[in-house]
Each structure stands twice: as C-alpha cells, then as structure tokens.
Amino acid sequence: MFARAYAATTMGVEGIIINVEIDCSPGLPCFDMVGLPDAAVKEAKERVRTGIKNSGIKLNAEKVTVNLAPAAIRKDSAGLDLPIAVALLKAYKVLQGDEMEKYVFAAELSLAGECRSISGVLPMAIKAKEAGFEGIFVSPANVNEALLVDDLKVYSVANVAELVEYLSGRKELRPAEKTDEVHLEEIEEDFADVQGQFLAKRAFEIAAAGGHNLLMVGSPGAGKTMLARRMSSILPQMEPKEALEVTKIYSIAGMLKNNSGLITVRPFRAPHHTISSSAMVGGGIIPRPGEVTLSHNGVLFLDELPEFSKQSLEVLRQPIEDGSLTISRVNASLTYPSRFMLIAALNPCPCGFYGDKEKHCNCSFTEIKRYTRRISGPLLDRIDIHLQVPRVTYKELNESRKEESSAEIRKRVEEARKRQLSRFREKNIVCNAQMSHAVLKEMCRITKPAQNMMERAFKEQGMSARSYDRIIKVAQTIADLDKSDIIDVKHMAEAIQFRSNILKLAD
Fold first, then answer.
1. What does the DSSP 8-state code read for residue 265?
2. How far apart are CA 25 and CA 96, in angstroms?
3. Are residues 120 and 148 in contact, defined by beta-carbon separation less than 8 angstroms?
4. Does residue 337 contact residue 13 with C-beta atoms inside 8 Å?
5. What DSSP assignment string belongs to 372-423?
6. How far is CA 64 from the centre of its chain?
7. Which of 73, 389, 472, 497 has its Cα between 20 and 30 A from that of 148?
8. Rounded distance, CA 361 to CA 24, Å?
9. Residue 53 binned pLDDT confidence (cut-offs 50, 70, 90)
10. Tens-place pLDDT, residues 117-166
11. CATH superfamily to which 191-506 belongs
C-alpha cells in the first residue's frame, strides 16, 4: 500500500519541504530508506518502528520502502521521524483520508513514541506557510518557535498515540494560540560600571550609532573586555525583521532554549582565540552557521586578536565587506547572512606593557613588530575605529561621580540611527557603516574645510581608498550624533583621530 506525508528540513538558513513516500508490500520483512538520508535519518527506522509499537499500535511485518524526495538533497534532520511514522500508519490503514496532506510534520520520536524537539523549526514553518500548507505539527518544546510565523496553524503533539487520536477524528486538537506578549531580555552590563575611559566610551557610542567596526589597543587590565561586553547595552533594539533573522539562525544552529520564542537581544559572540577557520565561518558536510553568522545583527568580539590563527582572521574579510558569507562544499554551496559589528582587542606587545606609563616593557622592537604584524593590513583597513585604551588611574577608580548609564548613551544612539534610517529609506541601508562608495558620494555633504583636512590626512598617512570611505562614514556618524546635516571640520577631525593610532603602531 502506498502513502505519503510532508516533512521539512533546512538548507543554509532556509527551509525545504520533503515529500515522504512509503510503500508497504508483502515480502521478506525489511525497512529500506532511499533519498540521500544521512546516518541520523537512517536510524529513524528503528525509532519509528519501536515508537509505534510502544504506542500500542501493532503493524504487520512487511517489506517497507521509504523515499525522501527530492532525492538530490541530503537529509540530515531527526525531525523526519514523525512524518515517516504518519506515512507508515497511513500505508497500514491505521490512518485514513487525505486530511493530513494539508500539514507538515516535524518532530523526533523517542522509543516510547514521544515527540521531541528539533532544531530549525522556524525556517521549516516559514517554508510550510510559503508552500501553502494549513499548519504544522511539532513537539510541545517547539511550539513557541513555530508560532512566530503568522497565518500558520501550529499543533502541539506530545506523542504518536495522541496524534493518531486526532487524525482519526476521535479527539479534538486545537491549534496553539499565540500570545501578544513579547519578553524583552534584560542586559545586565552597564556603562555606568566603567570608571574613567571617557575617550573609549565616546568611541563605543560612535561605533554603536553607525554600526562601525572597532579595534582597541591597551595594556592588560585597561578594561578592553569590560567595554566590549557592554556594547550590546547601547545598541538600538532590533527591528522585528532583524529579530526574526537572528532567531532563524539560532534555530538552525540548535541554540534556542526549549519553548523559547523570538530573540530580542542582539547577539554577542566572543570565540576563544584557538577557534578554527571552519568554526569561525561555518563548516561540515552540509555547512552549519559559524561564529560570524551567529553574530548577525549583533557583535563579534575577538579578544587577544594577534593570538588568533592567520587563517581564522583572514576569512573575516568577505563577511565584513559584504555582510554575507558563501561557503562551498561538495554537497552544497550556501550563503549565510553575516552583517555584524566587529570589536577586537589586543595588547600593544607580547608582554602587554609597551607605552604603559606605570610598567616597563621588556619586549624588543623586533618582537613588538612581529607581534603587531600578525594582523594583516587588509584586515586593519576594514576596521573603522582604532582606539588606544590607557590604564585606568587610581584617582579615576575612586571617583565618586556617577558615570553615564547605558540607557542615556542608548538614547543618543537611537536618535542618530533614526536620522540614518530617514536618510537611507530608499537605499535598503540601516546605518552609515553599510554605505557603498556610490551612496557615500551621493549622501554625505562635506564642507570645504573638512575636505581640505581629509586631503591632508590622506596624503600624510598614505591611506587607501577603503580607509578614505571608512573615515567619511565615521565622520557622518559623528555629525548625526551632533544632529548636523553636514560633515564639518570638528566631525572630520574626530573621525581621523580614531583612525591613525593603531596603524602607526603596526608600521
């Protein structure tokens, strides 16, 4: 007997509908599966067969053939367990009718027939809606994730027995209801905790307002990591579209908490310097999201930058420049979104105290050069703001004056972002850092004295065309914070100041 059911899997950050076809016929009992299943999917035959048996349903031993179409796509989701079980029960006449072909099924089965959560339910649900299905059946732990998709019925199924009761018409199962309440996660870190470091705080405000990459150089204990971890507290709240993109990525990566809904806080990723290039950009037979994709719409923080392998750093060039990352493998070529803010920190020398006023540096000039040159010029060129972070003094640490909070800084950042959104409303751009050279020439109005200053700096420092663009972008952000429609001398001067320090150190 032939039967079918519909499932879903993921490819990159998108969902794919899978047609599960089953044929049961008399013959030597066996359970064959075709259609490029991976090891986890092949093992489904044991989970499905045992789960159905332990749900109190007895099936005759026959020759069973399962086809997963389209056959050219490798299937690697344990969520195919439930649709295989549904199709098998239909083939054996336990379930009858075509009603179930209106739905997509996505859940892993236990040996007891219970439905377990899987990763990637959100993109699956999005694809199900796009393909015209009425609803999707998922485990209770995946319900809130699937409910993020509007106009799609979501059914929570605890086990196979409950599903059979519903599909047989013996039990009513109502769609899960979506709550209007969106839980906004709180960020504990606050810039009010940072004593002193006024120039650094200013640089972080500019970086947050324009979405700029930032590099910090300073002695150990200067507060570089402390500053970086507070960047998320001053970034604007994600738009619904951005939040959905981030949630989809984390769903595919299997990093959503059970029964969690929309991610509302911008990601902050801080990989260790021992990370491989594959883990940084994504890898596997079917590539999975790496750190640059997990940082999408958020922050990627690289501490001790020279300690990262050269290959791990150089793979950052494309995502920094393009906001996306293409990974090619034998089985697939996938493009992941990767529009993030890069914050990097490094010591000025191997011992960390070059230029420190209180501690003596024991490193030779050659050692300092070798250390700083682990970071390539092209990568440095892609970082907008270069910042020296000095050691905090005893007087600053004991200062009784209350420091400015993240909420106060965030207000100014959001006002600057609103100006940018208004300016770029027809350009599909959300912040100054995303401007192309053509958009920059069109949108940025620079006074003559500011142009003259930029010309002198360009010639004296031997800047590249990319450096020129990035300084103008930073200057435009400073002007936005100043509520100015034009880039004046003071805006340009501050932008140039935030560009030169680290480059001089690395020369």
1. S
2. 18
3. no
4. yes
5. HTTS-HHHHHT-SEEEE-PPPPHHHHT--SPPPPHHHHHHHHHHHHHHHHHH
6. 41
7. 73
8. 77
9. very high
10. 999 999 999 999 999 999 999 999 999 999 999 999 999 999 999 999 99
11. P-loop containing nucleotide triphosphate hydrolases (3.40.50.300)
